[in-house]
Amino acid sequence: xxxxxxxxxxxxxxxxxxxxxxxxxxxxxxxxxxxxxxxxxxxxxxxxxxxxxxxxxxxxxxxxxxxxxxxxxxxxxxxxxxxxxxxxxxxxxxxxxxxxxxxxxxxxxxxxxxxxxxxxxxxxxxxxxxxxxxxxxxxxxxxxxxxxxxxxxxxxxxxxxxxxxxxxxxxxxxxxxxxxxxxxxxxxxxxxxxxxxxxxxxxxxxxxxxxxxxxxxxxxxxxxxxxxxxxxxxxxxxxxxxxxxxxxxxxxxxxxxxxxxxxxxxxxxxxxxxxxxxxxxxxxxxxxxxxxxxxxxxxxxxxxxxxxxxxxxxxxxxxxxxxxxxxxxxxxxxxxxxxxxxxxxxxxxx
Length: 350
Prior knowledge:
The structure is a single chain. With 350 residues, the chain is mostly helical. Among the domains are: 19-55, no CATH class; 64-77 and 87-166; 301-349. It has 14 helices and no strands. The protein has helices at residues 44-54, 64-77, 88-137, 142-149, 155-165, 178-186, 197-204, 217-235, 243-251, 258-268, 273-285, 297-320, 322-325, 330-349.
């Protein structure tokens, strides 16, 4: 019988190639805000992203002067004690002015950056719309082709980009951001047939957006969010909530979610419906934890089922353990038996 030579599987060779860091970049932290690069130096993409963030001294904000002032204040006063502040009123005035300017600049750049990315995504969607036509012309299935050629986890995001791209003239509203635009399109049934669906929606809801004129982007976004959330309530038949309350919700950084709508629709049909709906909405608007889920009939039934399932498992374990059963008072068995009889009588009667 011949012996078959079996090659011993050798472990993969470790990458011993020394990574060359960019000029003026050291493996050890250059300041207290940086991490040790030994953790990521062999991951080029992550390293590049990290350095772009850590090396920024105000370039993204387009104001190195403001960033330096903020950094200096943070370094000089971060450990200061209250009793060491000689002239608090003067310092407070300086800090208030600085943080106001700094915040305004951050908000502006954030809006600009998110708008630019949104514009790129819309164009990406346009490309994929063309690709989808070509795929279908080749008699292939779109989703299968996508998963074979791209990351399947990105399919849903790409579908959203394609949805945006189908709306005419939408790119002029890219500054509003991808997710805000998607929310608007979800509320327009025939948006693909309209010449300027987003513009018409904004105008109909009192949002003044004129790209050719100077406009406060933050204000436009806020008003758009109010309109989006208010229309969600209107379409759900929850007209008892005034627009002023929706504004409070938006200013508190909240939004109307589908679960909120389900709960309010349930409360609306109960005694004291209007008052309970408004109270619930106010609790959602308030900063802090959302109100607990309303116990609808469906939720009560689900709780009963889950509780019964757990109880049945406990019973099964108890029946198999004689010593365990002996430690339980007989009265509990009698109570359980009686409740089951009552439940059976009720079910049969209904």
